[in-house]
Write a structure and sequence with these properties.
CATH architecture: 3-Layer(aba) Sandwich
Number of helices: 8
Number of strands: 7
Oligomer: single chain
CATH class: Alpha Beta
Number of domains: 1
Bound molecules: coenzyme A
Length: 226
């Protein structure tokens, strides 16, 4: 069975249930997962890719989803853009999610803290790899080419290509300080440790950056409205 990578974005929207499932399985403690399945399926992986605020790809082995990556070309602004476009729709979904599980309120407050910590920071505009994961049983799988890349490598290479195409000058990845495998992964792909960190999620984090060529152009695609 051969592996393949299927990119998603405004023209080829993802299956929100499928990406949400991968996200919940691989990154269960991330803000998006903690806000609940409804938030992922009805907001994050439905509205945001349709508007080009996030793009990404899913890796498959035959029919089996094996991993995913999600990136944005506007690390500091993509969630604010979503809130401006769909404020009431998002508020409704978040209220229903918190109503179903009040513990999600903490995730909401933490998400808000991260967003406000990223406001008005100035400096070089950045893209960001927001989520990355390959299911453990597929981590040694390679794409079918002579010396084909591992799925993780192919997923991240695709992200970089999409962001470079959109003239993003620099890409960041924020990794938990305790997540050694992912830190080794980014180091092995030529990313540099970045001393200036962005607010992370609860645990102490380590930031990696990759400088890309070119100048910035308008990045997001005008998209769906609520
Ligand atoms: C990030 C991820 C996609 C990378 O997958 P991968 O490239 O297939 O590789 P692995 O995770 O198996 O390992 C990456 C490297 O770290 C090494 N490594 C893994 N666990 C390790 C550990 N506990 N101690 C030391 N080295 C370790 C591996 O040997 C490998 O290095 P190598 O390629 O030079 O041999 C995968 O680890 C993953 O899905 N993790 C769970 C989700 C996650 O944490 N995502 C990142 C969120 S920021």
């Amino acid at each position: 069975m051969s592996a393949r990578i299927e990119p998603f974005g405004p023209r080829t929207p993802p299956d929100p249930a499928l990406v949400s499932q991968l996200h919940a399985q691989l990154l269960p403690d991330s803000p998006v997962a903690l806000l609940g399945r409804r938030f992922m399926e009805e907001v994050y992986y439905l509205l945001l890719p349709a508007a080009g605020l996030v793009t990404g790809a899913v890796a498959f082995l035959g029919d089996d989803p094996a991993g995913f990556v999600v990136e944005t070309d506007d690390a500091d602004g993509f969630m604010d853009s979503a809130l401006r476009r769909w404020r009431w729709r998002i508020a409704r979904v978040v209220c229903l999610s918190i109503g179903a599980s009040p513990a999600r309120l903490r995730a909401l407050l933490d998400a808000r803290r991260i967003m406000s910590g990223r406001e008005n920071r100035g400096g070089t505009p950045e893209g960001e790899i927001l989520s990355l994961g390959v299911l453990p049983q597929f981590r040694t799988t390679r794409l079918p080419a002579p010396d084909g890349p591992r799925l993780s490598e192919a997923l991240v290479a695709g992200s970089i290509e999409r962001l470079a195409h959109r003239k993003v000058p620099r890409v960041r990845a924020v990794v938990d300080g305790s997540n050694l495998a992912t830190q080794l992964f980014y180091r092995s792909q030529g990313w540099q440790l970045e001393p200036t960190t962005k607010p992370g999620w609860r645990a102490p984090t380590v930031d990696f950056v990759l400088e890309l060529q070119g100048s910035r152009a308008p990045l997001t695609t005008p998209g769906a409205s609520s």
